[in-house]
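Subject: for your reference before the review

Hello V.,

The reviewers asked for a structural picture of the protein, and I figured it would be easier to keep everything in one thread rather than splitting it across files. Below is the amino acid sequence we used in the manuscript, unchanged from the supplementary table.
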Amino acid sequence: MDESNRTDRRLMDLEVKASFLEDLVEDLNKLVISQQQQLDVLLREVKALREQLPEPGQSTFRSLRDELPPHY
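And here is what came back from the structure prediction:
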């Protein structure tokens, strides 16, 4: 009977650990999903910023006022 109680106790301990691990995996999965969504937003923002930059070799119009020294 003592062996049966030990086996039952060990089985219950394993079930409790499995339950905690399932919860942990679910929490980590939610975190990964959230971080992927943040990465997607950041990638879209970087893409939008790159599209605002002039193409290499293109000259952009610059006013002569931009060329004045700071003391003017």
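For the response letter, the relevant points are probably these. Helices lie at 2-52. The chain has a mean pLDDT of 89.

Happy to draft the paragraph if you're swamped.

O.
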